[in-house]
Design goal:
The complex is a heterodimer of chains A (805) and B (220). Helices cover 46% and strands 14% of the residues of chain A. Chain A has 805 residues and is of the alpha/beta class. Chain A has 4 domains: 275 residues, Alpha-Beta Barrel (TIM Barrel), CATH 3.20.20.330; 272 residues, Dihydropteroate synthase-like (TIM Barrel, Alpha-Beta Barrel); 82 residues, Methyltransferase, Methionine Synthase (B12-binding Domains), Chain A, domain 1 (Orthogonal Bundle), CATH 1.10.1240; 118 residues, Rossmann fold, CATH 3.40.50. The longest helix of chain B is centred in the middle third of the chain and has 22 residues. The chains are: A alpha/beta (805), B alpha+beta (220).
């Protein structure tokens, strides 16, 4: 069976609803429909037969939820389901696969690989039972659909249809829009894409039009019979078979080639549909060819607009990020990601290349974390093949791979990965002889890459050529050659272009100025995408201004709004001695100064903490500031909190203010090569099965701002991970949180596992809404922390500190 | 008190603020509530059933679902809680009554906002989380002000997947639950209510039927 061949001349007709029909034939609500394949095969076959008689070319098996999360006997139920469908005499049998009913990370707790494995079981069973194709339908999470599609591609040779469900606002429950689904899934190798369930067909025209706009593979529509209503305890739908067929026929005239029905449709609907579309020849569409990457929710098209690719998540030359990567401080990385997106980045480059790290593991972890907090698509940046492949696999959407180049080895290894995972590719114009000096030769390498990619089925629209920026200080005459190459590759090869702009200024003063000037020139030469720091003011100004000149910012609306009251900042740094912070007048005693910092903290005035501490560090030691200001201030706030005079949000604000102060102290310590003192190391985790981590996060923040070093393992943390962290960090105190009575047992298991692993002296403090002293004893913990402040007191006790006067 | 004020005061209560919050905090919470409202796509699925008491709980007629325990039976049949039921004449327990089962959610957008904020600013995450909780409760009040959810009293939280299944909540509103019975999206509620929602208004204190000690959200 080849779907594209079939739909060359004919409309392919699927069947209608299975669940609706089963309920009419004795299935009661709450029962597992798929088990009817075993208990009532005759009923299931009769339904399939009715659809075949109505004119369906394909029947889909009664296996929507036949996965290991809903059934024990997946293989048996699928084999029986395929047998029931085949017994109807249908032309083709499609294995029907719905979502697992378990949400993937980060919204839920199911890992991508666990989802993949569950789908793979279904697919292997279908292949064995000789189904003709697979239909993945009613998905609302692109990530889960990707896992399912990969499972089909890697475990069978069956054609596969990907179909999602959309709400009235044109997005899936998770927020994915139709264009994103089409672009990501057809790149990943779907044989057909489309929409099912959702709404009645009359409400789906916008969604279908969006799908047709981008789909180069056949498009399927299986709508509901309108909206469900309950009448006399039965679900009924508000659209008739006639209306349904009329509406779907209009979609066929727009280019839909596969039709069928979802909830509430019956053999009567399919019969009307066949009558109505009988003799229709498929309408050929003209889908757009675009260079586009996606996240799990949205698409970025490289088209008539400058695409900003944020460069900040790359440890090269960035000490703070290096340290964050070494200490697995992913919050730092997330805040970098969020800041870049807020500044204007459309795509984020992710690089985890530090020699001492396991790059595959770290790159994947960053991808997981970053894609959980931003909807910007990611560019996976590594020279490590295994890291690239692993990250492309677990990425939620269509990534950009950075990079391939003209070397034979690179082409042979990277192109198959890009093809398999449907990625866009950054192509560097260098080869075994290095970077050519002339623009002409760089175009030659780009041409070679484009042509080779074509032999793998990768179109030129999926390649973004990087003509490579050389430094003006070392190879001054090469700078303009790069720009000539940009113009030439666009003109001669019809590909999009990208440059890592900041390279140009190495070794020169006021690099921002050189960078922004070069960026402007590159944009003028036709550059489509720039890898930049979007928060850098000079870049920001250049990009926003260029968008006015290129007419991308129509009528300069964005620019006028944003720059209405803008003042171009002075480029020069303040001279030594000048300070933007309020000056201490010199007569004020140090005691007053300390009292003032304490007031800033207790008043939660975050913005004042850093400049004040920086000022004090000119004549106080870090230890003095911590012991004489931070701790007394926090203690004062803590006492007010305990007495009910102020509340948790205010306590947290004070702690955050101290956090700002600590940043200044740490920066000072780093500059003076003195390590900032940690009061002790504490591991925190929300236990396996629980994802309520807000309490744990509050505890973490307070502990950190009291000067403890916190290793946060996150939520849904299995016991092994806790053990591994204790061993690695040599920790003596662990804090565990659980919110639900059902996950308190996980706490007990975790503590037992740690003790069994030989860490008998490790102390545990526990907390969470349902916890109390009795539960503490039940789970085998040493301390119960009734609130976040109590956890600080416990930590002080364990580490033998007593700061309370 | 108007609706928005009640939602705000509920949010403050959820974050442990008991008396006289400072004006800056009130401003922060009001802004956070707006942020949550912008991220939320509230939707619900509901269905009416006849329910009948049985030896081990409450049987939902026309389905394979039995809600175990005494509390749910009392909730549905206890006349003291409902004026409408008090007007029925018989002294013998009613053989069945009409109930409504529903599930409601603020949607995945709120989860993403909360996850992102948690990584960036734990204090703001606390405020947003409390606002989201207040908002889903407010939304549920419009569906059924008096309701009983899995995890209350002796109705085990393990019934969660079965309830969602009977409502077809995955397809209908994109709501599922983890193997540890946590609903995803997080700010979601499933509950059983009397079909006649006017019954709830005669009950003075929603917290009366709850036995959880030390709850910071207790109304009195």
């Amino acid at each position: 069976m080849n779907i594209k061949d079939y739909t060359q001349n004919k409309i392919l007709v699927f069947d209608g609803a299975m669940g609706t029909m089963l309920q009419k034939n004795g299935l009661s609500l709450g029962e597992t429909p798929e088990l009817f394949n075993l208990t009532h095969p005759d009923v299931v076959t009769a339904i399939h037969t009715a659809y075949v008689k109505a004119g369906a070319n394909v029947v889909s098996t009664n296996t929507f939820g036949a996965n290991e999360f809903k059934l024990n006997n997946v293989e048996e139920v699928i084999a029986a389901g395929v047998a029931c469908a085949k017994a109807s005499g249908a032309e083709y049998v499609a294995l029907d696969v719905g979502p697992l009913g378990q949400m993937l990370e980060p919204l839920g707790t199911l890992s991508f690989e666990a989802a993949y494995n569950a789908f793979a079981r279904q697919i292997k069973a279908a292949q064995k039972a000789k189904a003709d194709m697979v239909i993945l339908e009613t998905f609302s999470d692109l990530y889960e659909l990707k896992a399912a599609l990969l499972a089909v591609k890697e475990n069978s040779n069956l054609p596969v249809i990907c179909s999602m469900t959309y709400q009235e606002d044109g997005r899936s429950f998770i927020g994915c829009d139709p264009a994103t689904m089409v672009i990501a899934m057809q790149a990943l190798g779907a044989d057909a894409v489309g929409v099912n369930c959702s709404l009645g067909p009359d409400k789906l025209f916008d969604v279908v039009d969006k799908i047709l706009e981008y789909a180069k593979v056949p498009v399927i529509v299986q709508a509901n019979a309108g909206l469900p209503q309950i009448k006399d305890g039965q679900t009924v739908y508000d659209i008739t078979a006639q209306e349904y067929a009329d509406t779907v026929a209009k979609m066929v005239q727009r280019g839909v080639e596969i039709v069928g029905g979802c909830c509430g449709t019956t053999p009567e609907f399919i019969k009307e549909l066949c009558n109505r579309t009988d003799g229709f020849a498929p309408v050929k569409t003209s889908p757009k060819t675009v260079t586009a990457c996606t996240s799990g929710i949205k698409t970025v098209v490289f088209d008539n607009a400058v695409t900003e690719i944020g460069e900040r998540i790359n440890p090269t030359g960035k000490k703070l990020l290096q340290q964050a990567l070494r200490t697995q401080n992913y919050d730092f990385i997330i805040s970098e990601a969020a800041a870049q997106v807020a500044a204007g980045a459309n795509v984020l480059d992710i690089n985890a290349g530090l020699p001492e790290l396991d790059e595959t593991a770290v790159l994947c972890e960053i991808v997981r974390r970053v894609q959980s907090v931003t909807t910007a698509p990611l560019q996976l940046d590594s020279s490590d093949l295994a890291a690239i492949e692993a990250a492309a696999r677990i990425y939620n959407g269509r990534p950009i791979i950075n990079s391939v180049n003209g070397k034979e080895e690179s082409l042979a290894k990277i192109l198959p990965i890009a093809k398999k995972y449907g990625a866009l590719l950054v192509a560097l114009t260098l080869d075994d002889d290095g970077i050519p000096k002339t623009a002409r030769k760089r175009v030659g390498i780009a041409k070679k890459i484009v042509e080779r990619a074509q032999t793998y089925g990768i179109g030129r629209e999926d390649i973004i050529v990087d003509c490579l920026v050389l430094t003006a200080s070392a190879q001054q005459t090469q700078v303009m050659e790069t720009l000539r190459a940009v113009t030439l590759v666009k003109k001669e090869l019809g590909v999009k272009t990208v440059l890592g702009v900041s390279n140009v200024s190495f070794g020169l003063p006021v690099r921002e100025l050189i960078n922004a000037t070069f960026l402007t020139a590159a944009l003028g030469a036709g550059l489509d995408a720039a890898i930049v720091n979007p928060s850098e003011p000079r870049y920001r100004e250049a990009l926003d201004a260029f968008r006015v000149l290129s007419a991308e910012d129509a009528n300069a609306l964005c620019y006028s709004q944003k720059y209405k009251d803008y003042k171009i900042a002075a480029a020069a740094k303040p001279l030594p001695g000048e300070n933007t912070a309020e000056k201490s007048d010199g007569t004020a005693g140090q005691a007053d100064e300390k009292q003032s910092l304490i007031s800033i903290i207790t008043g939660g005035r975050k913005e004042l903490a850093k400049p004040t501490v920086e000022q004090m560090l000119t004549h106080c030691t870090p230890a003095q500031i911590i012991d004489e200001c931070f701790i007394p201030a926090l203690n004062a706030v803590g006492e007010d909190f305990e007495a009910g005079r102020l509340f948790l949000p205010q306590l947290m604000l004070a702690a955050q203010t101290v956090g700002e102060g600590f940043e200044a102290v740490e920066k000072f310590a780093a500059e003076n090569n003195t390590s900032s003192q940690s009061k002790g190391k504490i591991i925190l985790a929300t236990v396996k099965g629980d994802i309520h981590d807000i309490g744990k996060n509050i505890v973490k923040m307070l502990l950190q701002n009291y000067g403890f070093n916190v290793i946060d393992l996150g939520r849904d943390v299995p016991p092994e991970k806790v053990i591994e962290a204790i061993a690695r960090e040599d920790a003596v105190l662990v804090g565990l949180s659980a919110l639900m009575t059902t996950t308190v047992k996980s706490m007990k298991e975790t503590i037992a596992a740690v003790k069994n692993a030989g860490f008998a002296s490790c102390k545990f403090m526990v907390g969470g809404a349902v916890l109390n002293e009795e539960y503490k004893d039940f789970v085998g913990a040493d301390f119960y922390a009734k609130d976040a402040l109590e956890s600080v007191r416990i930590a002080e006790k364990v580490f033998g500190l007593n700061n309370k006067q | 008190m108007n609706k928005n004020n009640k939602t705000l005061s509920d949010a403050l209560r959820y974050m442990g603020v008991k008396t006289n919050p400072p004006p800056e905090l009130l401003t922060q919470v009001a802004a956070a509530l707006d942020e949550i409202k912008a991220a939320a796509r509230p939707c619900n699925v509901q269905r009416e059933f006849e329910a009948q008491p049985c030896s081990n709980g409450l049987h939902i007629l026309g389905t394979s679902l039995v809600l175990p325990g005494e509390d749910i039976k009392n909730f549905v049949f206890d006349k003291n809680k409902c004026k409408a039921l008090q007007n029925t004449d018989s002294n013998t327990p009613k053989s069945s009554t009409k109930i409504k089962i529903f599930a409601a959610t603020l949607g995945a957008g709120v989860d993403m906002l909360l996850t992102r904020t948690a990584a960036l600013d734990a204090a703001q995450a606390l405020v947003l989380d409390a606002c989201a909780t207040a908002l889903i409760e407010e939304y549920c009040d419009t569906i059924a002000p008096l309701r009983f959810s899995p995890g209350y009293g002796d109705l085990p939280i393990e019934t969660q997947p079965e309830i969602l299944n009977v409502l077809n909540a995955g397809r209908a509103i994109g709501l599922s639950c983890t193997q540890n019975f946590i609903m995803i999206p997080r700010k979601s509620v499933s509950a059983i209510a009397l079909a006649d929602t006017s019954c709830g208004e005669s009950l003075p204190n929603k917290c009366a039927s709850c036995t959880f000690e030390g709850c910071i959200s207790k109304l009195c």
